[in-house]
């Protein structure tokens, strides 16, 4: 059974902390994505990666960075957490194809910054 | 940038009825996908329809695509309480570009 695993379901952090959200997939997918989901705003793309050590900015990259040192792992980093980064964070992966196929999502991390 | 917009934002129906959700988008696409999200969980892929297709079926799901109107609809027939979830459309504009999601429709199926 294919799997995208996010390290935490729930996380509470303090303002100013550096926060790491980890995502691991076991499907040997080339593409990995980080989205955040907020009520009334749907899913918005933060960063994505098509290969190891490469990254591309999505629509809302400010305040975030990412790391992809290994193909199966894509980390989202909040350099200095702020209360407006309280949100649900969703990681996804998909195989590299000529045209895009379905994405597989993790269970989500609900982050609260206090 | 938000590409798809689902309509309605919320829908409440009785078990056994059909549920129809619509999605409109702004730019030309390579394909359009529908996803389902149970409360507080990740998204699960339901169906993908390519830009050269007009209709697709999967079990109780029927998806249509009208590229001239830049719109798609998802029909769930004979709904069940277990269909209660949020449904999102997502578009792919070309090649291997990331999915761009709409804001979703919250469906409640009352037993």
How do you describe this structure in short?
The complex is a heterodimer of chains A (about 110) and B (about 110). Chain A is mainly β and about 110 residues long.
Could you list the spans of chain B in which at least 5 consecutive residues all have pLDDT below 50?
A: none
E-strand count of chain B: 11
Using only C-alpha atoms, the radius of gyration of chain B works out to 13 Å
The end-to-end distance of chain B, rounded to whole angstroms, is 37 Å
Q: How many DSSP H or I helices of chain A?
A: 0
What is the global morphology of chain A?
Answer: globular
How many DSSP helices of chain B? 0
Q: Helices and strands of chain A, in N-to-C order? A: EEEEEEEEEEEE
Strand content of chain A: over 45%
Question: pLDDT below 50 for ≥5 consecutive residues: which ranges of chain A?
Answer: none
Helix content of chain A: under 10%
Name the chain pair whose interface involves the most residues: A-B, 31 and 26 residues
If you had to describe this structure to a student in words, what would you say it looks like?
Chain A is mainly β and 114 residues long. Chain A has no helices and twelve strands. In chain A, strands 2, 5, 6, 7, 10, 11 and 12 form a seven-stranded mixed β-sheet that branches. A three-stranded antiparallel β-sheet of chain A has the order 3-9-8, with no helix packed on it. The mean pLDDT of chain A is 94. The radius of gyration of chain B is 13 Å and the shape is globular. Chain B is mostly beta strands. The relative contact order of chain B is 0.35. In chain B, a hairpin with a 5-residue loop joins β4 and β5. Chain B contains no helices and eleven strands. The model of chain B has no long low-confidence stretch (mean pLDDT 93). The interface between A and B is medium-sized, with 31 and 26 residues.
């Amino acid at each position: 059974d294919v799997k995208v695993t996010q390290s935490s379901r729930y996380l509470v952090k303090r303002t100013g902390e550096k926060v790491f959200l980890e995502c691991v997939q076991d499907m040997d997918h080339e593409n990995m994505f980080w989205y955040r989901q907020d009520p009334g705003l749907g899913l918005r793309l933060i960063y994505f990666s098509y290969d190891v050590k490469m990254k591309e900015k999505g629509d809302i990259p400010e305040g975030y960075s990412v790391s992809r040192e290994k193909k199966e792992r894509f980390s989202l980093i909040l350099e200095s957490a702020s209360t407006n980064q309280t949100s649900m964070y969703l990681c996804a992966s998909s195989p590299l194809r000529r045209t895009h196929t379905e994405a597989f999502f993790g269970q989500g991390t609900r982050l609260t910054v206090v | 940038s938000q590409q798809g917009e689902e309509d309605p934002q919320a829908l409440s129906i009785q078990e056994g009825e059909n549920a129809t959700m619509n999605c409109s988008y702004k730019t030309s696409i390579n394909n359009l996908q529908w996803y389902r999200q149970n409360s507080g969980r990740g998204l699960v892929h339901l169906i993908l329809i390519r830009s050269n297709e007009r209709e697709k079926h999967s079990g109780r799901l029927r998806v249509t695509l009208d590229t001239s109107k830049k719109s798609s609809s998802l029909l769930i027939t004979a709904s069940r309480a277990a269909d209660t979830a949020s449904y999102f459309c997502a578009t792919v504009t070309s090649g291997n570009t990331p999915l761009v999601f709409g804001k979703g429709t919250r469906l409640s199926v009352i037993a």
